[in-house]
Structure formats: C-alpha cells, structure tokens
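Escalation from tier 1.

The customer reports that the assembly of two entities below gives different structure tokens on two consecutive runs. Tier 1 could not reproduce it. I'm attaching the input and our single run for tier 2 to review.
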Amino acid sequence: MSGTFVGMPAFPEAAREAVHDQTLRGNLRHATHTIRAKRRTAVAEVSDWAELREAGKRIKDHTLRHLDRYLVQLEESVTAAGGTVHWAADAGEANRIVTRLVKETGESEVVKVKSMATQEIGLNEALEEEGIRAYETDLAELIVQLGKDRPSHILVPAIHRNRGEIREIFAREMSEWGRPAPEGLTDTPAELAEAARLHLREKFLRAKVGVSGANFMVAETGTLVVVESEGNGRMCLTLPETLISVVGIEKIVPTWRDLEVFLQTLPRSSTAERMNPYTSTWTGTTDEDGPRNFHLVLLDNGRTDTLADEVGRQALRCIRCSACLNVCPVYERAGGHAYGSVYPGPIGAILSPQLRGTASEIDASLPYASSLCGACYEVCPVAIDIPEVLVHLRERVVQGGQVTREGNKVVLRPAKGHAAERAAMRAARWAFTRPGALRTGQRLASRTRRFHPRTLPGPGRAWTGTRDLPPVPAEPFRDWWHRTHGGKDETK
Amino acid sequence: MRVALFLTCVNDTLYPDTGRAVVKLLNRLGVEVDFPVAQTCCGQAHYNTGYRYEAEPLARHFSDVFRDYEAIVTPSGSCGAMVRELYPRMGERARAEGRGDTLATALAPVVPKTYELTEFLVDVLGVTDVGAYYPHTVTYHPTCHGLRGLGLGERPLRLLRAVKGLELVELPGAEECCGFGGTFALKNADVSAAMGADKVRNAASTGAEVLCAADNSCLMHIGGTMTRLRTGMRPVHIAQILASTEEEPAA
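Tier 1 run:
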C-alpha cells in the first residue's frame, strides 16, 4: 500500500472534497444503505440480541480488567502449543520483529490475510523498505493495494470504489504485481472475482510466509481465530511454512465458550450474515499440517494508555464489525479517508485520538466529526457508547487534563485554536447564570431585528452559507409571559 | 400538580410561538403551567462541545430554579435528554474526579421529573387525543436525542394521528440525523449541510406541506435549509400542531 495518512488535514477540511464528489457520495450511499438494511434484518432474527450484546460487553470488560493475567495465560498456552510469542510496545517494535522473522526465513515476499493491526502499524511499508513485498489477498484490500489507494472502511476497504473503477484498476495494475487481468475484462462481479482469484492463486501456491491478524485469541488454549468471507484468509493461514500473526492485546477472550457470543454478533453486525463462510482457528503448530512455525506478535501501540482512561477504555471492546460506520450519517457523506486513519467512522473517531493522542490537527478534530446522533451506539454489538467517548475526548481537547502516554501520567494543556470558542462559552455561561443578562440580550436582539443581515460574515458563514437564519421574533417568550401572566419580575 | 415549563433558551429567544402553544395546550388539558422566569439554559451546548466545567454552573442553576416543581415539561427532546441522561453523568464524573457527591446531589431532584412534552402528554396525563385540529399534510421527523436518547418511540406519532384533519405521511429515512448536532453545524458545516439537504429532499418527496418535529433547534437547521432550497415546505413544532383548534387554528 503506497497511500499514507501522515500529515492529514483536520477532518472538516478533509471531508469537504468528499462531500462534493458526486460519484463517491453515490458509491457510499448505495453501499452503506444496502448493508444497513441487511444488518437490521439479520439482527432482528435473533430474539436474544439485547442479551448477547450485554454478554459481549461484559466478557470484554472482564477481560480488559484482568488483561495482565489473561495475556500471561495466553503466552503460556501459545508457547505450550509450539508457537513463539513476541511483545511489541509500539508500531516500530512490531515492524522490526516481523521484518526480522521474515528475513530469518530467507524469503522476500509474504501473503497477507486481511488485518487491521498490520494496517495500523504500517507493516507493508516497513517491509517494503527492507526489500520484502507484502501481497494483500483479501479482495477489497487487493483493490486498494493495486490502486495505490488508502482503505476507507474497516470491513470493505474499497467501499469508495464502484465496479467500473475496480475493472480499470485490475486491467491497469495486475500485470505490475503478477498475473495480468484477462483480456477483455468487464465489470461484472463474477469476472472481477475470477480475475482476482487467478491473480491470487499464483501467490498462495508460491508463498512460504503468511502474515495475519486475528479477530480473537483464546487465552485458555492459545487458539487464534480469523473470521472471513472469501477463503483467501484460510489459504494464507494453511499453505505457507511460516505464519506470523500480529494482534492487538485487547483481542483476548478467556475461554472458547466466550466465542459463542461473538461468533453470533460479529457476522450479523458486519456482513449481515447469520454465519460467516470461513472461521479459521489454529493452536500453535500441528505436525504434518499447516505452518511449521508460528509466531504471535502481541501489539500494544497505545492500548495500555487507552485502558488507563476510565471513560475512553470502552473503545477497546471493539470487535471491528464496522456496523457503526455503515449506520453513520457523517461517514456516509465524508467517506473513510477524511478520518485520516485505518480506523474510520465513529469508532475511528474515538480510537485514533486515544491510540495516537490529540496532538495532530486531524486527531484533535476527530472527536468533533459527529453530530452525536447516537446511531452508532445503538448498533454497536458490544455497546460502546461512542457519543459519550466523543464528548469526553472533546473535553480533553478543549480543557486538557490528565492522560496516560507510554505508561506515564501527563497533563495535557488545552489545545490551541479554540480561544474564541472558549471565550464564547465562558460568556454564555456568565449570561446564562444571570437571567437578567439573558433577558437584556434577548430584548436587544428583538429590538434590532429589522437590521439583522440575511447572511453573516466570518465564522457565521458556516451557518448562512447553506441555511437561512431564523427570523428573530418581536419579543422573547419571557416578555410575553410577563405581559400576559403578570407577577413580579424576579429577574430584575 | 405544580408544572413548570422549561422552554429552553433557544425557544425563549427565537421561538416564543412554541412556548405559547405549550401553555395553551396544557391549559386546555387542565394543567396549570408556571414559567419560572429565572430559567436560562440547561448547558447542553457547553457540555457537548467539551466544556463540562462551564456546563456545571448552568446545571446547578437549572436545578435551583426547577427543583420544587412536581413536573418539568420541555418542548425539546435534546434539552430533555440533557437533564435526564447527562446530568446524572455529570454528577458521576465529578465524583470520579474526587470532587465528592455535591454536584450529583444538587442535580438529582430534577432528573426523574423532567419530561419532554409528548412524554408528559402520553405518560403522565395519559392522553393521545388532545382535541387538536390541523387540516394539513404533515410528515414527522423524529429528532435523534428524542428518538435514541429519551426513547420517545411512537408517542409523537400517536398524538399526531389523533389530530383532526391532519394527514400524516411517512418520511423516508426518518431516523437519520438531520445534521444539526449543535456546534457540529458550524464546525463541520459541509457535512452538516449535506445531511440537511438530504433530509429536506426526503421531506419534499412526501409532498407534505409541513415537516413536524419535537425540537426547534433541529427545525431551525432543516427550516433554514428548506427556504434556501426553496422547497415550499415549512417546519412546525409539534406543540403548535397539538395546540391548534378549529376555533384558533395554527398555520
């Protein structure tokens, strides 16, 4: 993947272009509305959905509370099953570990299972710098990689592309990476899928090293779980001699029994399927079957710091289903790229500023990339109250306060660029704690109403650029009340 | 019953007709309403923009003004949700920050007795037919904080269906946010405007004369978009429809 999110502008600026791109708007509207409707049907079929949601939340909260214990248990289980566990504090360390492991095999290419964790750390770029080529094998990730593009969705990274655009990318780019697209390729789904199948098959059969993430890690047995639709993940997990899995530390569940909940809620929330077509599980290595060597790289990269925040930590319950993206009206208009992260949409708006901090322009703007409509919270299968965390992170941006960074408590200063807003909020607080001042302001507005402009200058243009101002009435309600209901005016 | 009208700062300043409609409607149903003039603002804009510490004195002021009433009625889903959902959370946060129970205790009395208007009518007064007459075609937009915050559900629709002369038509994509979102409308003006335009297009596709909602701040955004796009529709607060009668019809 050659696209990068480094140096992204703030969300409103990044979103502006997408909002006015009619093709993109059409692609996103079609895709999100389709999956939204299907999810609703798939969830409505389950009579105990609310209980499953509550159970998923509790399992995750319990695991996060005892994460230290479960991580050690997992390490012991994986080691006992013949795997090797590596610990990575941040992206750089994880990339160095994976690069070293690949080099030790003597290979210069790897096949990849779709994985958010390896996207998060920029593994493909890190491998590229060391002369190792990483091939994405998930269909949508392949489209993104061939198109030198960036992912715009967690589950459907090429959601911003339509069939015609995908045909173009295949016809133009496949020959650069391996087997070219068939002559006369059209944009019918079956032909596009067949072109990808032929292109990828060559890589599966040749690859000696596979790289994956995981949806779950079972502490009691050291088993990793990947759920997918295409079977390409299964190829990468079984054919190569060496398998390296990079997994965020929050992906643990204590027991196999806990999977029962998530294997119901995840497919219905993500692809709106009762059950995903492929669920691969593996426990260390097995003689004469599958990879000979298995390495698990446990990734922190800001997760322990996030866990220290009692409001924000609920973001770590996320199982990456992307239901919140599909239902989000802001994501639907702004598209995934505007979020400046491999985690777009509502969950990205609360994950990125926690994993990366709020120092950059894009990360400080993400908590505001929401109308707080609450649709994300409603569909979340592990009940992450995303609006609550968004508001909490807004506080962090404008008020500052204590946060944990690399394990140390630090006090953040209020972000710059909010001075005028802060002054306005203080002034409003002053007036609103003095009813007399509020009434004076209202009367002033009413008496000067003939002179109010239809459009506002400066920051007011943000409103009047697309919306008319409401007319100010001849008198505020409280004056009418005073006139008609009399009584003494307590505000004098 | 001592019922207080919490009109909200936006309605008080910009939409006095909504306030007069609530008073007229409740009086007609035999409820005596007081408007405590010391009321100002619930602090929602401060809280949701990240200024929780600025919102705290406003919440305390709200509680001081309203705590002695038996019921507090507000024609705003989002301000109602602020009091019911977020005041307790503000108290919890203060406690978690080691500031003790004072804020939680100060705010606790107003939380359970604050009702959004349609909740008060349906749940407390137990009426769905309020004797209203409104001979227009209306489509209803459930605003987010009323829908998902307070869980108003079918209440507003049940009230509207009982209005004489009113033809209710379904709004496509009704549960999608209109894009107002308080300071979101200014901070992310492009996305907000795109959401507003889609909402207005959906509303116009129904052929209704009126788009009705239970929150004037959302209607300010939708209405401002409607006139800019020249749809010919008008936004009307549900209180004004329910207050309208054959003797005194509202527009």
